[in-house]
Design a protein that fits this description.
One of its GO terms (biological process) is protein insertion into mitochondrial outer membrane. Keywords: Endoplasmic reticulum, Lipid transport, Lipid-binding, Membrane, Transmembrane, Transmembrane helix, Transport. This protein has 6 helices and 8 strands, in the order αααααβββββββαβ. With 380 residues, the protein is an alpha+beta fold. It has a domain of 242 residues. Strands 1, 2, 3, 4, 5, 6, 7 and 8 form an 8-stranded antiparallel beta sheet that branches. The N and C termini lie far apart (129 Å).
């Protein structure tokens, strides 16, 4: 049979195959390989199609969900626009009618929810004097019959305020003392930690204030030699209400008294710049002590006859009492001590300053927070 090899013990004999048989065999192999590749391509295509069948439905669901939400939102906006909004403002009369309707509805609802008895007051258009009389009647205060009141509660508040100021001065001085070298002689102002802290704080304030004045060329650095911020507190009593002179408001008169030993001692040098710069200096040491300050304090809140912002005005009656003493030493070699004229001039200048700033008819104006004032207004 052709195409078969015969194996025997003897030598191997081969038969030659015709060329047509070889060609038919090669074509068979090629057709088998092409069928194999076609089958593999069919399998891959089937898996890819199955994957897309899972992806496409998920994308369609998200798109449909978003479209549904958009439709609901547009429907809600349309209904809101139709029921609660208007396309045009309308005429002025219609706007006013709508405003009155809204205000009436809100006012009616508020009256139904709250149960407040009706209050009546004098309209402001009747004048300030009528309003003041109405004010006194509402607070049940008759100035002609009401007895002076004690101010124990005010004494406690003022004492706490003064104590807070004293503690803040001491804290500021302690903070400044950490950065300064205390290589100074033993002075009365350094007798204890509190005086030392107050000395440092006051020296810093005084010397900084002297920098912007013309006297800085004539005065040397100020050294606080003695200081005592006191240990007592002022007392207020006999508060009474009085009508103001211009009949535009009322004022409160309060008697006060402060007895303590407020002490301040300063040492410096006064320079003479003639005929040359720093030709000579005059040493000066001053110590002032205030022992008693008493009088009548007047407090008035309101507006003046002319249109001004609301403010509080404070002044003293002219019969105030100020008991103070001043000790001085001038000179380095030959010293002038406790010259009476210097004490008289200094205390007279202090009293004159008080009379021209806080003694009636001069007031110390305290601006109060205003409504409707511009930020640029210094009194606002």
């Amino acid at each position: 049979m052709q195409g078969r090899a015969i194996w025997a013990e003897g030598p191997i004999h081969s038969f030659d195959l015709p060329s047509s048989s070889l060609e038919r065999g090669g074509q068979a192999l090629k057709s088998g390989a092409s069928k194999t590749h076609a089958y593999m391509d069919e399998e891959v295509g089937t898996s890819t199609a199955e994957a897309w069948t899972w992806i496409v439905p998920s994308l369609s669901f998200i798109q449909g969900f978003m479209a549904g939400q958009a439709v609901l939102l547009m429907l809600f906006l349309g209904l809101f626009r139709y029921f609660f909004m208007t396309s045009s403002p309308g005429t002025r009369a219609q706007q006013q009618a709508d405003l009155l309707q809204r205000v009436h509805a809100v006012r009616t609802s508020m009256d139904m929810r709250s149960h407040v008895p009706p209050y009546a007051r004098v309209p402001y258009e009747q004048g300030v004097q009528a309003c003041v009389q109405d004010l006194l009647s509402q607070v049940r205060y008759d100035p002609s019959e009401h007895a002076p009141e004690s101010l124990d509660w005010l004494n406690v508040l003022v004492a706490q305020l003064l104590m807070s100021y004293r503690m803040s001065i001491l804290n500021a001085g302690m903070c400044a003392g950490r950065n300064e070298d205390m290589d100074e002689p033993a002075l009365p102002s350094t007798a204890n930690a509190e005086k030392t802290a107050a000395k440092l704080a006051l020296e810093r304030v005084l010397n900084e204030a002297m920098q912007g004045r013309a006297t800085k060329h004539f005065l040397d650095r100020l050294v606080v030699t003695d200081i005592d911020m006191g240990c007592r507190y002022p007392t207020f009593s006999h508060a009474r209400v009085r009508p103001a002179l211009h009949a535009k408001s009322t004022l409160v008169e309060i008697d006060f008294e402060y007895m303590d030993a407020l002490t301040l001692g300063i040492d410096t040098r006064m320079w003479l710049h003639f005929p040359q710069w720093r030709f000579g200096s005059l040493a000066a040491n001053l110590c002032m002590r205030v022992e008693r300050f008493a009088g009548t304090l007047v407090l008035e809140i309101g507006t003046l006859p002319e249109p001004t912002p609301v403010q509080a005005r404070v002044c003293l009656h002219p019969n105030f009492v100020l008991d103070a003493h001043l000790s001085t030493i001038l000179g380095s070699k030959s010293k002038l001590q406790d010259v009476p004229k210097i004490e008289e001039l200094f205390l007279a200048r202090l009293r004159s300053w008080l009379e021209h700033n806080v003694v009636w008819p001069h007031f110390w104006h305290i601006p109060l927070p205003g409504i409707g004032t511009s930020p640029a207004d210094p009194l606002a």
